[in-house]
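Let us work through a complete example step by step.
Step 1: write down the sequence.
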Amino acid sequence: MFRTFSLCVMVLNINAVIAQNTLGNSSTESFKNKTITQTRTASPPKDVSVFSWNISGDAFINEPALFNSLIEKVRPDILLLDEVTDKANKTQLRKALHASNVNNQSNWHMNFWVSGGRQRTVIASRYPIEPLQEFQRIVAYPDLNKARLQALIINNGELKYAQSLDSGISVNGAIIITASKRLLVVSLDLECCGNYPTSWEEDKRRIEVREIRKQIKRVIQRVQVDGIIVAGDLNLVSTVMPLVIISGPYEQPHSGLIAADLTHIDKMQTWTWDGRGTKFPSRVLDLVIYSPTSLILKDGYIFNPELLSIEAQQSLNLSGKNLEKIFNHLPLITTFSWHVE
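Step 2: predict the structure and record it as tokens.
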């Protein structure tokens, strides 16, 4: 695990250097002066806050009060939920978000799609959503890769997983339309398990991100995209190659994506998946990845309810709850501002 984590840090640092180079070599002072000059003549785009969470099936169905309290506390503009059960629907999510409504009218736009079978991804936004044809259908595994994977899985004695490939990749994408910007958001949930680089699970993860990257490139070529955010459970239990692949490269001005550097509120812990009670250590599986040529990570943290005071837990309807079960994966909360041109 430590070797994997070190490699992940190295990859993120390399991506950060690439991203900085694409922004140009101007000094920090000149950038500040440029920003001040432009904001005198035009209002800068509003910040965008994102709440990303692997809800492990049914958090907003079985725990609507808790889910609603959390959203009310964070007040995000965009929700990116992965590993959502296929039994969930818009009515259930809207009910769980009722206190976030304005004047008793729903101010949430929702995007539920079918790819991923029993584990799907959902996008909700306070801003209007533009659906994308690339993600409105089942995002299928390429035929040759699918046949090869099915053979590997069957040989490993796991027939049900081989059949699940017909449901497609667990991914969803849409354009969020703010007052002046068009933000492409993608929520994903990659294959779990498979700790070895030669495992079929790791092979499957790499195939999944290659296909997702292909769909992102198609969107960028077809419609205007001002910025990109990809978030979800990458399940980096073996290598960081899935992160490297999804990072790009993409056409200018987007270039390469980088992962948000997030910690718990104690500024020390970084895990997003709780491995306590298992034979595996807690680790970083969930990430928020973004285009640094257009977006600036203004603030962000990994929400760990165990670090809250008793009073804060009570205010979020967490008292008496099995926190380890509900928060098997921790939510990621980020706020982005836009680069001023």
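Step 3: interpret the result. Residues 200-222 form the longest helix (23 residues).
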